[in-house]
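Severity: low
Component: inverse-folding endpoint
Summary: output formatting inconsistent between runs
Steps to reproduce: submit the following structure tokens with default settings.
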């Protein structure tokens, strides 16, 4: 009876923790969305905007996060008119929207890159997007670390366990590996942002890999924004030149990993055969299932179970 009560208490505490985390996340989301809406509301009235001379008809004024290339051109036209009257206000609006989308994992960042490239050109838009994407991803990192860790582990246990094994295997060259992960379209950027604090990836490595790894794609999108009128689908964007640039950058990121792997094969006795890892496996039962935990030596067992915050994922050794 005592065991059943303790299990019920653990489940109730876990549900309460999830509820508080979700409620806090929603509150932060609404407050941030309200700040973006306030910046948008402070723009001059649309009636005060003047259409460019020589236009045969007035184009519609649209202000929303674009979801298609036609909407993107309409938003670009509207912001271009506002930029003539209040360029600083437009820049703050674009930055606040971009950060909001990055921190809270709202789809559409690629359209924002194109929009920035169309408004400011590559010399200004590239550093602008580089800073915004790095800061926004860092915000998502800290959001996961202090608020969403248990939820992310509960929703994506298999992905977290797989990523944990890869990070542990590449611990000796973690920075180039993280840069390559950012460049390669293998893991979504939002998942890397959320998983990094769970796997105890140092924040400095996270920032550096984000600042470097996201830039090739950002540069391609920003440069494509300069010719926005000729873009009608994503196929028009990813030409041979763009793909070649991304492949070269990915090869440069993978080069230290490949060189070290080759060196270990040539000189196997110079380095230890096993690289130690902060993340180990801990037997949870006598059968084939084990738990991957963040710090097994510090994990406190509660009635034979680990707290949810310590569990990174489950591995089935029978597979």
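Observed output (run 2 of 3):
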């Amino acid at each position: 009876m005592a065991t059943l009560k303790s299990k019920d208490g653990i489940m109730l505490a876990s549900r309460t923790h999830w509820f508080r985390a979700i409620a806090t996340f929603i509150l932060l989301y609404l407050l941030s969305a309200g700040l973006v809406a306030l910046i948008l509301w402070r723009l001059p009235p649309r009636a005060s905007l003047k259409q460019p001379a020589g236009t045969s008809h007035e184009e519609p004024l649209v202000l929303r996060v674009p979801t298609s290339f036609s909407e993107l051109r309409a938003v670009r036209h509207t912001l271009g008119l506002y930029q003539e009257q209040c360029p600083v206000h437009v820049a703050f609006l674009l930055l606040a929207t971009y950060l909001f989308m990055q921190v809270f994992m709202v789809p559409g960042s690629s359209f924002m890159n194109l929009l920035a490239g169309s408004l400011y050109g590559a010399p200004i838009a590239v550093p602008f997007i580089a800073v915004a994407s790095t800061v926004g991803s860092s915000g998502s990192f800290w959001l996961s670390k202090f608020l969403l860790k248990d939820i992310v582990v509960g929703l994506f246990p298999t992905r977290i366990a797989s990523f944990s094994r890869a990070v542990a295997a590449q611990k000796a060259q973690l920075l180039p590996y993280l840069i390559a992960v950012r460049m390669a379209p293998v893991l979504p950027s939002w998942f890397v942002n959320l998983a990094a604090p769970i796997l105890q990836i140092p924040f400095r490595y996270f920032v550096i890999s984000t600042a470097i790894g996201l830039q090739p794609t950002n540069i391609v999108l920003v440069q494509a924004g300069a010719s926005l009128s000729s873009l009608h689908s994503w196929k028009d964007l990813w030409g041979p030149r763009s793909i070649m640039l991304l492949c070269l950058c990915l090869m440069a990121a993978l080069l230290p990993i490949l060189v070290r792997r080759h060196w270990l094969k040539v000189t196997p006795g110079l380095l230890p055969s096993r690289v130690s890892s902060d993340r180990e496996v801990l037997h949870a039962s006598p059968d084939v299932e084990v738990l991957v935990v963040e710090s097994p030596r510090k994990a406190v067992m509660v009635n034979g179970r680990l707290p949810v915050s310590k569990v990174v994922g489950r591995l089935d050794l029978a597979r």
